[in-house]
């Protein structure tokens, strides 16, 4: 249980071997390591949080632009390749399989494990949600999404997937039949991006244009909470082991801390100026990790 007071933290940075690699989405793999996409270097990488060692796996397409990554129930890492228009599957030993998305230039972006065990992903440029099963067969869903809605991040709750719509300023829900419903965010042009499930059941998301975090309940009711940082360009959010929300402020180069009741606690500066923090995740060890896109480092928030 957190005291909701500003905590003493140490932020460490771990430099990725490939310079300018553009680390984007991170996830915890079945081996306990941090796996992430190097979006500007066309690689998938593994970071050992205990030793600090990196291992990188180049992709066949020279400009694949991998973005989202998740650990599947099959023990593999599944990821999107936005420019290559493919879904990739990588074993922890580095064996790669790739699957073409049926819609050309669909822009596959975020990815998640659905309650049915299949892998679901957003097609940001095609305004669709895709599903790929263990055999590699892809099904696409679009009914209920308006043109230009740009679906992004996904998270599983109550037997469905909830997702942000950056172009539509809405939060969507898709069930396992493909039926989609959308809920408008009170602030216009909020540009929701990253989304995270809280242990208490709420789904939280960043509002990149509104300098706020939002929360949507199971009925689709949305609350917004200002972070008090001007021009922050919020990008990533996660629920920490303390039950609070931790988020990245890309433009101001900070990590933010908010309670689950929506009260701001503190902000912490990233060590490298202009590092561009984006995705942030909570590791099973209780440590927080984030990808600093512009500095090509993996940042680590340790509590003292």
User: Any idea of the CATH class?
Assistant: Mainly Beta
DSSP helical segment count: 0
Largest sheet: 4 strands, antiparallel
Q: Please state the average pLDDT score.
A: 96
How far apart, in Å, are the first and last alpha carbons? Answer: 16 Å
CATH superfamily: YVTN repeat-like/Quinoprotein amine dehydrogenase
How large is the radius of gyration? Answer: 18 Å
Helix content: under 10%
Tell me the count of domains: 1
Proper CATH architecture: 7 Propeller
Shape designation: globular
- The structural class is mainly beta
Low-confidence segments, given as residue ranges, are none
Number of strands: 28
In order across it, which strands form the biggest sheet?
A: 1-28-27-26
As for the CATH topology, it is Methylamine Dehydrogenase, Chain H
The sequence of SSEs as H and E is EEEEEEEEEEEEEEEEEEEEEEEEEEEE
Strand content range:
over 45%
Structure at a glance:
The chain is mostly beta strands and 304 residues long.
Describe this structure in words.
The chain is mostly beta strands. It has one domain (9-303): YVTN repeat-like/Quinoprotein amine dehydrogenase (Methylamine Dehydrogenase, Chain H, 7 Propeller). The protein has strands at 9-15, 23-28, 34-38, 43-47, 54-58, 66-71, 77-81, 86-90, 96-100, 108-113, 119-123, 128-132, 138-141, 151-157, 160-165, 170-174, 180-184, 192-197, 203-207, 212-216, 222-226, 234-239, 245-249, 254-258, 264-269, 277-282, 288-292, 297-303. The strands form seven sheets. The chain has a four-stranded antiparallel beta sheet, with no helix packed on it. It has a four-stranded antiparallel beta sheet with strand order 2-3-4-5, with no helix packed on it.
